[in-house]
Amino acid sequence: MNNILNAPFLTELVRTCTNMYNHGWDERNSGNISILLDEADVSACLDVTHVLRTIPTGFSAPELNGRYFLVTGTGKYFKNVQVAPDENLGLVRVVDSGRSVELLWGFSDGGTFTSEFPAHMMSHTARLSVSPENRVVMHCHPANLLAMTYVHDLDERSFTRTLWQMCTECVFIFPEGVNVLPWMVCGTNEIGQATAEKMKTARLVVWAHHGIYAAGRDLDETFGLIETAEKAAEIYLKIAHLPLLQTITDEQLHQLEMRFHVKAREGYLNIRPVQSGPEGARDR
What we know:
The longest helix is centred in the C-terminal third of the chain and has 21 residues, at 219-239. Among the domains are: 1-115, L-fuculose-1-phosphate Aldolase (3-Layer(aba) Sandwich), CATH 3.40.225.10; 250-281, no CATH class. It is elongated and about 65 Å long. It is of the alpha+beta class. The chain has a nine-stranded mixed sheet, sandwiched between helices. β4 (89-95) and β5 form a beta hairpin. Helix content is 39%, strand content 17%. It has helices spanning 8-22, 39-43, 85-88, 117-130, 143-151, 156-166, 170-173, 189-199, 219-239, 250-260, 277-281, and strands spanning 32-37, 53-56, 68-72, 89-95, 100-106, 136-140, 179-181, 204-207, 211-216.
């Protein structure tokens, strides 16, 4: 049997947590990640019949019954994951229709999963219903996206279009756009349910004045979605107070759709001839 510390899914999560902390996205004990794993990958490095303890979840997710997740712990600092993965991470199996999980590895100091775990499970369920290859849910606090929610209106179409117009790559990295939630109390089933509903139509959900939720096929894709949106938000904040002389037009965004074989979210583009000058640049 392989050592779980050498398992690709574990080493990649450790690397990702470290990168996220170094990016400044996960200060103190903020942020959380969960990965849906195949039983074959888990059983290659663990005895899946050996349960360390059972932990109640406080919610129900029958669609995930029997599924395996690697998840970050509550109150844990991402900067410590690389030096003590067995304390800061846990590998669990969902049982009892999602009302509990069985801990198979990790949380060796007696800890438990992140307080956002119910929100993760709801988002996993939502994403799997529309995109079965999605296996990662990631939450963090990227500063520029967070700051943008204070100075930009929170209309999803407007918010998305602004990000698309900041970087050429945005429209083909997240063609479905970005969904936005108004401020809500975190760590509750209510925000989890609202996020999951938004996850049905986009892989990125911004929590106003708080952070972002992202979903993807793997850690690289999910990290990259946040990284791209955060870069666009940074550019926006650098130029928002300046007079715009030009921008990426809707016609140019449509050209990117065709070039990269993606479809921008229905109704988000106004296809029109390329315009130049301040008037065209301000059309958001």
